[in-house]
Amino acid sequence: MFNYIQLINALLFEPIAWLILIAFVFLCYQLKKNRKEKIYLLLYSLLFAGSLLCVYIYNIQSSRYSAIIIAPSLILVAAACIKFRYYKSSSKIYRFISISMIIYVISICIIKDFRYNKFNNYAFIISEELKHSNTKHDILFTHNTQLYEPFIPIPTQNHDIDSLFSNKTKLEEFFQQYRYYGKTIYLLGKTPIDKNWYKKLSIPLGTNCKFIKRVVKNNHGASYDLISYATQSQPPNSIKQLNINTSRLSSTHIINNNFEAIMPPLNTAHFIKKIGSLGHDYYLNNKILLPKDWCLSISEFAPQNSVKIGMTDIKPLEGVYSLQISVRDFPYNFVLTNFLTPGNYLISFLIFGEVGTEFSIGKIIMDPKQQHIKIMNVCITQGNVQRIVVPLFKNADEVQDKYNIYPCIIISNGTIIVDDFEIFKMSF
Questions:
Q1: With a cut of 70, which residues of the chain have pLDDT below it?
Q2: What CATH number should be reported for the domain holding residue 357?
Q3: Most distant CA atoms of the chain, gap in Å
Q4: Which of 233, 237, 292 is nearest to 259 (CA)?
Q5: Distance of CA 249 to CAs 175, 223, 240, 246, 427, Å?
Q6: Which H or E run includes 73?
Q7: What pLDDT does 428 receive?
Q8: What is the domain extent for residue 184?
């Protein structure tokens, strides 16, 4: 609740906010014996409380949308001034307080008018930099996409860029994750304390990072930095492209790596019954074939029929069957049942997807206490069948014999077809 009090204080301009609080306390004290005027104070309090409730519910963070509290606030200050004027009228001190309050309100409003933010057009300056961007091959990552969407032609995506800019290690991990994204990514975030932070970055081979502009945001000198990160057009499609000595690779056996083995009918029926009970009637109304020895599950929080999984024999990528996954606005991951011990691996597979479908290659790291997903690479399908070969490097905190590693592919929106998984362990 204290956070919302601070928010209201900021929306109303601090001097006026404190004056309103003083006026309200005085009115409550002065009207404690007057029943008739108490009713008006009660009705007013309900009006003001309703205004604050709107701020609370809709989480208003812009003064443009906070006009709902301005009207009752002015009424409250005016009522307090009138009451001060006639309160113990024989005393000049209360008349002086009343006049002083009016002068105070007028003065701070005039000062506020002259003390405006000279840099409030920073969003338009940034938009001008992106105006000529390529709509198909560029994207903007920033913390507040709604501010820029009306002015720029490229897609936007919410991302906590402020924390990336202030943490060199996290930013370099981001560069590695999006190395094969296939687009130019514009990153917009607050300027860190170190003004030359962008000169000390290490970026993956084959990519390019460029500082574009620093734009001042307000009179206090706060600013935003805009950089571009040109990623590689697509992931490697062979071990040769990674310049890895094949003598240092050893193949890891994967059960049912080509999706030709079908899950037994009893297990399939159990899966369909379980998923159908969550409201996913797609599985109840269709004859679904599922791959044997693969971990396929749907979260109970997934919207109904948002994830559709099944084997397809229509234009399989290889052999008789391939695995098809369609997802709508809900992140879904499918996981190899084979666990790997901590180490450095190469993962290779065939994939086909709708143009622009975003998917991530990562691993689920499990220890005796918890599990978490580590995203290694984020890619975009090109609309054709392609083989992808990417490394899964060991994390520094992965302890041998205490962690199990499960490679996984994550998709949040779109359709992909996958087949022919291979994993190689790298020895260095």
A1: 1-95, 97-98, 101-102, 105, 108-109, 112-113, 115-117, 336-338, 368-371, 396-402, 428
A2: 2.60.120.260
A3: 101
A4: 292
A5: 26, 48, 12, 5, 7
A6: helix 67-86
A7: 62
A8: 122-230
